[in-house]
Prior knowledge:
- By secondary structure, this protein is an alpha/beta fold.
- The protein is elongated.
- Strands 3-4-1-5 form a four-stranded mixed β-sheet. A four-stranded mixed β-sheet has the order 2-6-8-7.
- The chain has helices at 15-19, 28-40, 49-56, 61-69, 71-74, 93-106, 109-127, 130-135, 146-154, 156-181, 184-202, 204-210, 269-289, 293-304, 309-316, 320-332, 352-356, 360-367; strands spanning 2-6, 22-24, 216-219, 222-226, 231-234, 240-246, 254-258, 261-267, 336-341, 344-349.
- Helices cover 56% and strands 14% of the residues.
Amino acid sequence: MAVTINLSDYSLKTNETLIQRIQFVYSPLNELFRSLHVLLNFRHHGMNIEWVLQSQHKLDNDFYDSLHYFCLIYELGVPPIFFNDFRSMVCDIDTEINQLKTHLASIDNELIITQLKKISTDRENSFIPTLAKSLEWGNFRLNDSHNLLDDLSKKPKAVYDRLFEFIAIYRKQVFDKTWENLKIGKFLSNEIKEQSNYLKNHGFVNMINHLQVDRLHWQSTKLIVTKPFEENIELNDRDSILLIPSYFIWPHLFVEQFEEGVIITYDALNKLKKSAISNENELTSIFHALSDPIRLQIMKYLFRERSTTQSLAQVMIMSQSSISRHLQILKNAGLVESKKDRKFVLYSTTDLLNSIFPSFYSYLNFKY
Length: 368
């Protein structure tokens, strides 16, 4: 079962027309709402549990009353209407909040109520079926949001005033410090930059795989988001796919439609943790490669000048097969590279060791 996103015929013509559909979004306000979701349902967000425990000490009962009161806004995703329907893109939270104030004041209040009612009805009845609850939303229970809907119909200004006061208190007590201490802004901008470069260099389909989101993949001519229910989304020639990386949403993957396409909010934090494991494995491989005196000698010779297997064997008085085995270990660790020059294969050192241990070769020349 999945959400199937069907792109228009024009979008599918070339890789270039596919790339034109994609926009990455940097949104501190999105992270604020997603972090409120984590505070509301922290049992399902183990990767952020330490942050939740630290935050709870800074927040009082009045805050938690408001957290539950406004839960429909961020409980199961955030309606695009609370991002100004993405009509303009800004990069700082103060501007985002001011735009939201203007947007909520300018649109028909019934539109907001209708959207929230639809979300409440759809998600209670079908968005989270029994299978979905057991697979994706374990230990999750919808909060009662009737008070919010009733108050919006009777006294919308008071509701919005309370919402922005709630956001201001949360920012002062928790979020702004979290944003700064965890360097979330840098984390998100790095993710967007990396994926944008990958999109440019390797194309749309490869970029989707490079996001490292297990439940998001390209299948033939469609974008598939694995979910415990079926849904089809049809995009026209003008529609866009907005990709929003998030620090807070794991283990969820949110898909929401808006006037000009579809929004996919995906987890970028788990990838960072996988990267840390990958870096540890890389270091283990490097240290293993450097643990043998013969390989250290090879590194010393290759740092001075490129060489063939035969030349190294002669200098070190060893068989070519033995040298080849050592070179392969060094090459697997990323410490050595080879390049064919006519009929010869020349080996040389890479820049990896210099980037990790800047004085390594000075030390090596002194000791060996």
